[in-house]
């Protein structure tokens, strides 16, 4: 396969890994995951706008402009013959002798790869729904940055899997924030609710698109924090992410337990979301 290194697409296995890269030493870097449908990246502009915002928030310098990233992404897709799949791109602050203090104007290190994904595997959980595990959100207070520091998310996901759940739902002092790698929505009396795009959650690209679709089609949306009690009393619950699209939640496990039906609002948004993918990525 072929991978991205700086602004080149090269054969995998030939990337020099420097142990003094701040990405390894401090998790000092950012990333994006873009889905590929029909060999086209979906929502590329939105993902790279967020990439630039993450860079800016961490005082990281962008070595290339968006058109270069776009070109490299297309090349990753074509060289790896990806029809449906995902593109991962990360950028670390670069290589320097280990010191918490970073110097400005370092040479960022950009790497990335592409993977084919079977759409059948995501379709299955979208049809049947997933089990989720309620757990405390132990992460830092800048979850709006898509940084490489994902230990809180990683620990939450492992715990969820240990209880036979596909995703964790995190809460901070009883306020639901987000999944370990997804945003969380509830439906109550026909109205959607999801945590506002503050420092406590990642403003998901899928989240933003689902909110737009809902508003455009007359589904009321409140970007308001909601409690674990509201989660328990919701009519429908679903998660959103680049790799899971709109996936219904059928069970909550953990300190609180609840079952949900896959409801009409979730099903409608799933369908509308597929429609947008189709429109934007058909030949
Ligand atoms: N929240 C977290 C913590 C994530 O890691 C992700 C994606 O991986 C999301 C939300 C969903 O974001 P997006 O829809 O842009 O994939």
TrEMBL record:
GO terms for molecular function: D-alanine-2-oxoglutarate aminotransferase activity; pyridoxal phosphate binding. Keywords: Aminotransferase, Pyridoxal phosphate, Transferase. GO terms for biological process: amino acid biosynthetic process; carboxylic acid biosynthetic process; D-amino acid metabolic process. GO terms for cellular component: cytosol. It is an enzyme of class 2 (transferase). Acts on the D-isomers of alanine, leucine, aspartate, glutamate, aminobutyrate, norvaline and asparagine. The enzyme transfers an amino group from a substrate D-amino acid to the pyridoxal phosphate cofactor to form pyridoxamine and an alpha-keto acid in the first half-reaction. NCBIfam families: D_amino_aminoT. This is D-alanine aminotransferase. It comes from Fictibacillus phosphorivorans.
